[in-house]
């Protein structure tokens, strides 16, 4: 069982920012920038291009809504998108608040964000996500 499956099952806590029946978005525990979000399908699939067309489309539409919520509450020029697919054998999309291309450089050291700030960020994105309905 992957760490993401344990998060979906509630066995590992996370800072959720959005959730539907089939998808979940939460703050990355090892972010590149404050507000770095991971978006996953709840059903385990290792490789993004193994998703069927409907699931791939729905994952991206969910990600789009999460990105809009992020942009509404986080100071940044854009929300960058990356799919690496090597870190955890479970499909995930990185949504990273960016001001320059260097802000989404995965070779850079990750930052530390204290739990109070993580809670504040996740709550803000969650509220913005709910308002988009």
Provide structural commentary.
With 133 residues, this protein is α+β, with helices and mostly antiparallel strands. It is built from 3 helices and 5 strands, in the order αβββαββα. The chain has a 5-stranded antiparallel beta sheet with strand order 1-2-3-5-4. The protein is globular.
Radius of gyration: 14 Å
What is the name of the CATH topology?
HIT family, subunit A
Low-confidence stretches: none
Content of β-strand: 15-25%
* Widest beta sheet: strand line-up: 1-2-3-5-4
Q: Which CATH architecture is right?
A: 2-Layer Sandwich
Average pLDDT taken over every residue: 97
Overall morphology: globular
The CATH superfamily is HIT-like
Give the tally of structural domains.
1
What is the helical fraction, as a range of percent?
Answer: 25-40%
CATH class identity: Alpha Beta
**Major sheet summary line:** 5 strands, antiparallel
- Number-wise, the strands total 5
* Count of DSSP H/I helices: 3
Order of secondary-structure elements: HEEEHEEH
Protein topology:
Blueprint: H1 3-8, E1 16-19, E2 23-27, E3 37-41, H2 53-73, E4 78-82, E5 93-98, H3 115-131
Antiparallel strand pairs: 1-2, 2-3, 3-5, 4-5
């Amino acid at each position: 069982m992957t760490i993401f499956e344990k998060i979906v099952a509630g066995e590992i806590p996370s800072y959720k920012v959005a959730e539907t029946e089939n998808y979940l978005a939460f703050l990355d525990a090892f972010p590149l920038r404050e507000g770095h979000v991971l978006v996953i399908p709840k059903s385990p699939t290792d490789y993004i291009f193994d998703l069927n067309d409907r699931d791939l489309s729905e994952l991206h539409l969910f990600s789009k809504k999460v990105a809009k919520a992020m942009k509404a509450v986080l100071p940044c020029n854009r929300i960058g998108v990356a799919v690496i697919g090597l870190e955890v054998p479970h499909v995930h999309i990185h949504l990273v608040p960016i001001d320059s291309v260097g802000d989404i450089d995965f070779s850079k050291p990750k930052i530390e964000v204290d739990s109070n700030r993580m809670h504040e960020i996740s709550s803000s994105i969650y509220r913005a996500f709910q308002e988009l309905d």
